[in-house]
Design brief:
The protein contains 11 helices and 11 strands. The chain is of the alpha/beta class and 333 residues long.
Length: 333
């Protein structure tokens, strides 16, 4: 059987599909899987099982009506037997419909929207983890599997990027202080203090992750005159960031793509949560809930995927976790 797997964006969401896709593929080596995703997120699929291919979509195939038409035409040439729609958006519905018309089996991700809305009103509830929902899609296709994924680098650690000095005896700490939404981003002044506290330790090396441009500029300001702080933003390709994360002892991240990338390489993550919490279902693969820090406010969570506004107008959840708490949990004190 040839299964088309659809997950078009975004980086963190695509990263969450990999444990399920790789586990199912290894459980059913007699079947073939083709993953349709954007050219950028396709780069996450490192060391994939032999029966997994990636249909890497160019920009004109990944967006808009014309792109959807091109995607449908591309998938028609693949001799697909069934579709696992891990996205469940308008674009994937149109692709699904093209296979329904050919009497192919299609199973779509259940986003549990009612469950997610209930969490915002009753903060004692928790959503089904999204990674489990991806496994559930395959199970409904008759491909039930247990998690078998460990890391993108199961056999040997990848070499460090050429610009990264070799690791000695120091503790390597990665910090990814940004997220798409303000409600998911820890206070910048406090995060700078966290960087300074780790930088003051003689046996620590700190790596700062972020995007090119504005984030890169902020991180260089934080790293100024700190010889053991290295800015990754703007210097490494995605594959190189994954390789570096595999060597890092602990990553400090928001509820963001970096949390899921670090999880894919088996690195411990201390995650900081604001408007969202792990109850929303997005905790990184095999990450410990004890490493997920929240302010514990009665108003959390107030959003499932993040927002730029606080319903109460104070955004206290992004500041209430203390810098000392972060340092202590990273160091195991």
């Amino acid at each position: 059987m040839h299964i088309l797997v659809i997950r078009l964006s975004a980086l963190g969401d695509v990263a969450m599909t990999i444990p399920a896709i790789y586990s199912v593929a290894r459980t059913y080596p007699e079947h073939h899987f083709t993953v349709a995703t954007s050219a950028f997120t396709a780069r996450l699929f490192i060391n994939r099982p032999a029966n997994v291919d990636v249909l890497s979509l160019a920009k004109d195939e990944a967006h808009g009506a014309t792109g959807t038409w091109k995607l449908i035409q591309a998938t028609k040439r693949l001799d697909i037997d069934a579709v696992a729609d891990l996205h469940n958006v308008l674009r994937s519905w149109l692709v699904d419909a093209s296979f329904h018309l050919r009497l192919k089996r299609v199973v779509m991700l259940d986003k549990h929207r009612r469950e997610r809305r209930a969490i915002l009103h009753d903060h004692s509830q928790a959503a089904t983890p999204f990674i489990q929902r991806y496994f559930d899609v395959f199970a409904r296709l008759g491909l039930k599997a247990e998690p078998r994924f460990t890391t993108l680098f199961p056999d040997i650690l990848p070499p460090l990027p050429p610009s990264i000095p070799a690791k000695a005896t120091e503790q390597w700490i990665g910090i990814a202080p940004f997220a798409r939404y303000r409600s998911k981003t820890y206070d910048q002044a406090q995060m700078k203090e966290v960087v300074e506290k780790f930088a003051s330790r003689s046996r620590s090396r700190i790596f700062l992750f972020g995007a090119r441009g504005k984030e890169e500029k902020i991180l260089h300001e934080w790293a100024a005159k700190q010889p053991n702080v290295f800015v990754v933003a703007g210097r490494l390709q995605l594959e190189e960031e994954l390789a570096l994360m595999a060597h890092i002892d602990t990553m400090i991240t928001m509820d963001s793509a970096n949390m899921h990338m670090a999880s894919l390489v088996g690195t411990r993550v201390v995650s900081l949560w604001g408007g969202t919490t792990p109850a929303c279902g997005f905790l990184g693969y095999r990450q410990s809930s004890s490493d997920a820090l929240t302010a514990g406010l009665s108003c959390q969570p107030c959003t499932i995927a993040g927002s730029d506004n606080c319903p109460l107008g104070h955004m206290q959840c992004t500041r209430a976790i203390t810098t000392s708490q972060i340092v202590s949990i990273v160091l195991g004190e």
